[in-house]
Amino acid sequence: MAESPLSDSPYEVLGVPADADAAALRLAYRRALRTAHPDTGGDPVRFHAVQRAWLLVGTPEARAAFDRGLRGPTSAPTREAWAPAAPRRPRDSRPLARSYGHPGGLTRELYLARMREWVGRGVEVPDPYDPELVRRAPRDIRHILADALTEEATARALSTLGIAYTVWHDVATDAAGPGLPPKLDHLVLGPTGLFAIQSEDWGGPVAMKRGELVGEALGGERPFRALAARAKAIGRAARVKPTALVIVVPDEYAAEPLEVGGSVRGAVVALVRSSRLASAVREGLPGSAHLGGTEVMEVRSRLQAVVRFA
């Protein structure tokens, strides 16, 4: 199970309450293992999740450690996994992409505000990233934190593109998604095109279908439509056209590393795994227009003149 605020707890994976006794836990594990086993037509991803859940709570020692939030090879994440990471110096001297803005900053502000609202006015929240508190929060609040983490992971990947690329994070736009702040997560410009990128973690698998994402976890959202609206608002102001619309999700939620799904207003749309993003941008998406050196400079100047940060 991924260290995501939206990941099911081991008890949820096994289908038992957190206070289930050892016998009930063992019975639930055996049933879940039997129904999820690939040899009997089960889902390999689900089978792995059941095994992982048992490692976390299958013995009295492991269960006690998990319930206390202790960290180990098979334990739950500590608050450091979800709190803002301290800046780190690059390990080598290779030039990084030029980056502007604060990735995940506005999303984290929204998370903190919603967490305080949920806990209650006047109630002190000593640590809003405490794993026990996060697990008890409503799903929509955990979703906001999961998105912030994904935005930060995307920013780290994009920083490795090199000096030929310019990246803007948290770009303000008047086109917002449902329950989300009015911003585009990432805008990337380089010789392989102008990419409008949204980082998302819905806590479940998604797939491309007729130029849009589908999946139970989406809850009726139309992510590419929302992304296209954000990109259009920025492009109109700068008099430029994005060449690609990209949604990035954690690796385990996309069946393919890169899935292209047609185009919207001339921009290729693609679903990309987080680990594949940097190479996808460097190589360019299939069918997406590349830009010449003079064109890149002109587009950068236009964007720099209009980009504002959320």
TrEMBL record:
In this protein, which residues make up the domain named J? 9-70
- Give the start-end ranges of region Disordered: 67-100
Please report the name of this protein according to its UniProt entry: Nuclease-like protein
Which species is this UniProt entry from?
Agromyces ramosus
Domain of life (superkingdom): Bacteria
List, as start-end ranges, the regions of compositional bias called Low complexity.
Answer: 76-86
Q: Which InterPro entries match?
A: DnaJ_domain, J_dom_sf
